Amino acid sequence: MSAIAPTKITFFEFLTPLVASGQKTITIRDFSESHYQPGTQVEVYTLESHTKVCDIVILAVEPLAFDDINEFHADQESLPLDELKHLIQQVYPDQQRLFMISFALVETQVSSN
Ligand SMILES: CC(=O)Nc1ccn([C@H]2C[C@H](O)[C@@H](CO)O2)c(=O)n1
Fold it and tell me: Where is the active site (predicted)?
């Protein structure tokens, strides 16, 4: 039996403009935050104030070892590689077993009326 897929995800507030603009297309999380299901729509909130930012669709969830994080991942994260690895070490200290969650921004329609 599979668990119910989460419908919300949080990001540090300073990263949310990158998500909402479509520049950030992956996030790297630990096992506890890896249960997103490809094809599902997920609401994005800021971690600090729990403000809704946008919606994303999950494209894939794949294992990724900390030591394998490289420039490709930094590019998808829209962060410098050293900054990305430092951030991940702060959030998930001493965790080698991580997961890459790929996603796409759900564009919202702006009414012309
Ligand atoms: C609870 C919570 O919001 N945790 C996280 C964990 C990671 N991030 C960011 C930091 C990096 O850009 C990537 C890779 O972990 O995801 C985050 O915003 N919030």
Answer: 24, 27, 77
Query: Which residues form the catalytic set?
Result: 24, 27, 77
How far is it, in rounded angstroms, from Cα 89 to Cα 101?
17
Residue 10 CB coordination number (10 Å): 15
pTM exceeding the 0.80 threshold for the entire prediction:
yes
Q: What are phi and psi of 23, to 5 degrees?
A: -75, -30
67-73, long-range: CB within 8 Å, 24+ apart, which pairs? 67/96, 69/28, 69/98, 73/26, 73/28, 73/100
Give the count of beta carbons closer than 10 Å to the beta carbon of residue 12: 11
For β-strands 41-46 and 26-29, DSSP reports them as unpaired
The pair of three-digit structure tokens given for residue 4, joined into one six-digit string: 């119910």
Give the closest residue (by CA) to ligand 1 atom 16. Answer: 27
